[in-house]
Design a protein that fits this description.
By secondary structure, the protein is an alpha+beta fold. Helices cover 40% and strands 13% of the residues. It has a 4-stranded antiparallel β-sheet with strand order 1-2-4-3. The structure holds flavin mononucleotide (FMN).
Length: 202
């Protein structure tokens, strides 16, 4: 399967079955992530795979406490989007998914956050390739979660990715097209006048 097809198939999953999942698929996906480019090749990322139900429970409890505060304060467009999506402070996926991958960026290295997020992008596609569902969850209290996991202070949590098998099947969220997002030469330069679309690698 080509990358475009994989990318189109990937969705954020927030409801997981409790079926166990082998850790090998996750290790494969992290190996892919380790190939990501990084500022000065510093590879400023660290991954913790959390499978222990007790630790997952502590993470969920801490995240839900912080999310409750966030949901009470959030207003405007973001509040509307969250309510349309049916999202709330409850984060059951943090204990339902058989594994969580906590991804950290090491501060003080060049472009550590940007580099780590490139690696996260690789990781998400690789999880999709091995048939594992995932979510990019960004808790409001990354420092507290880092402490639960025993991370040093220079390691800042970027995301917790629950991984497992999807319960049910959620539709893909709409994407903009190439024509809507790509400009040629200058802002507003039309793509369609130059390139016949669609194009796929041979
Ligand atoms: C940087 C980033 C932060 C995100 N944070 C959250 C989050 O905290 N909670 C959540 O449920 N989804 C989160 N998401 C998932 C997005 O809501 C999701 O990717 C987007 O709605 C598109 O849906 P899709 O991934 O199914 O295509 C995040 C995604 C990214 C890239």
């Amino acid at each position: 399967m080509g990358l475009l097809e994989l990318a189109r198939r990937r969705r954020s999953v927030r409801s997981f079955s409790s079926d166990p999942v082998e850790v090998h698929g996750i290790l494969y996906a992290i190996e892919v992530a380790l190939e990501a480019p990084s500022g000065a090749n510093q590879q400023p990322w660290e991954f913790i795979i959390v499978s222990d139900p007790e630790i997952k429970g502590r993470i969920r409890e801490a995240c839900e406490r912080a999310e409750r505060d966030f949901y009470e304060r959030v207003r405007g467009e973001l509040a509307e989007w969250l309510s349309e999506k049916g999202l709330s402070w409850r984060k059951p996926f943090l204990t339902e998914a058989p594994h969580l991958i906590a991804v950290f960026a090491m501060m003080g290295r060049p472009y550590s956050v940007q580099s780590t997020w490139i690696a996260i992008g690789y990781l998400l596609l690789a999880l999709e390739e091995v048939g594992l569902a995932s979510l990019t969850y960004t808790p409001p209290n990354p420092r507290e979660i880092g402490e639960i996991l025993g991370a040093p202070s220079e390691a800042v949590l970027q995301t917790i990715i629950p991984v497992g098998k999807e319960r049910g099947r959620k539709p893909k969220e709409r994407r903009y097209s190439l024509e809507e997002k790509v400009h040629i030469d200058t802002w507003g330069g039309s793509l369609t006048q130059r390139e016949p679309l669609p194009w796929t690698p041979s």
